[in-house]
Amino acid sequence: MSTLRTSPTPGATMDDPTGRAGVGAPNLLPARAQNAGRAARGPLLERVGRAIVARALRAMPGTPIEVIDAGDAAAAAGVPTGRVRIVVHDPAFYRAVAFGGELGVAESYIAGWWTCDDLPRLVEVATAHVTALDTLESPLTRLLAPLSRLAYTLERNTRAGSKRNIVAHYDLGNDFFALFLDPGMVYSSAIFPRADSTLEEGQFEKIDRACRRLDLRPSDHLLEIGSGWGALAIHAAKEYGCRVTTTTISDAQHAEATRRVSAAGLAGRVTVLRRDYRDLDGAYDKLVSIEMIEAVGREHLPGYFATCDRLLKPDGAALIQAIVIRDQFFERAARTRDFLKKYIFPGSCLPSLAAMHEASRDASGLRLWHCEDFAGDYARTLALWRARFFARERDVRAMGYDDRFVRMWDYYLAYCEGAFRARHVGVVQALYLKPGRRARPGSAAPEVDDRSARA
User: Fold this and answer.
1) How far apart are the C-alpha atoms of 251 and 190, rounded to whole Å?
2) Pairing mode of beta strands 312-325, 270-274
3) Domain coordinates of the chain in residue numbers?
4) Which residues contact 2 (CB under 8 A, 6 or more apart)?
5) What mean pLDDT is predicted for residues 74-88?
6) Per-residue pLDDT at 17
7) Which CATH superfamily includes the segment(s) 159-453?
8) Choosing from 211, 242, 349, 416, which is the catalytic residue?
9) Four-CA torsion 176, 182, 185, 189, nearest 10 degrees
């Protein structure tokens, strides 16, 4: 388990908000941009940034977004507008936009240079006009784009790279994630069975639905790629009676999942491995992978599906829950190092449904049998995580995390919620079958929804 800091880190930077890289001054922009900024800082660059922001707003006619400076905001305090209001507290915001485009918007939020009265709504509205966001990309942004692409390339998911990328997120520690996740520590979208369902009920339904889709039986040996903290493995073994082998490359998750399996009295039925999915062997009846494919990387998608195919018996089935980007934007997103890839999930790449289909078709014998999207449930999950995060903000800070870190996580959770609300991204449970597996007559998928019908 990772050790958390017990005091704020004075060396935190924009590239490293938690201070892991060492002591230094805040580093909002790449070094090349900083040098250019020192020479160009002042009214001219600020005017450029203001013009870029104004152009972006003009490209979204009728949208309820307004951008005002802090002095104007004070004068307008208490005046209801029905609009999403961005308040700029430091003109450096405009310079960041001029240099960094969308990424500059995110980085300047982390720096505290602007605030918003409804950040998820802002992201939703802006993302719904995704072509208008292109207007934020200035010649300066495009000039620096090759450096960003190079950094992203260096984070690719080789075996060693995958380990580094996972550690970059999960070394925040089990205690940190426990502050805002449900008691089962499920860090993926819930599926809420009712409008008033709790987060815990939604996570139970998501896990159980995956098990039902797979038609799990006591005779099955289930392989899980991406253990999380062990919730699905424990549920499948306890409720469905099957054997489970689950694997992760996160040391913190491996330790906690092992502890939870033992505490549940399931050590004889659940095996927790600390192994890269590419190094697995054996033959399994069923396979499940919940929101792990996003960490695979575009170039490794064919290998991922080939591995799933190789590990399944001829009549096997695989349930893959994946965050997916719209097909039209996959190629661009796969080449871009955006806010999430730079600060939250290095090396990640959201697949599209078309990319998953192409990879599974060309590299495996798996065929897609059933696919369900529940993006609205992810938006709700993220809203609950964000509310729970801020309800425990004092505890977050007691762990040593500072203002920059809190704002970064605020932006991360709101950014994702808005993207799901706009349906720019979705989340699916996709069921793939091996050629030897057949659905029962009259069933839409090889699943059993009625537990009493299971053998």
Assistant:
1) 24
2) unpaired
3) 31-154, 159-453
4) 170, 171, 172, 173, 174, 251, 252
5) 75
6) 36
7) Vaccinia Virus protein VP39 (3.40.50.150)
8) 416
9) -110
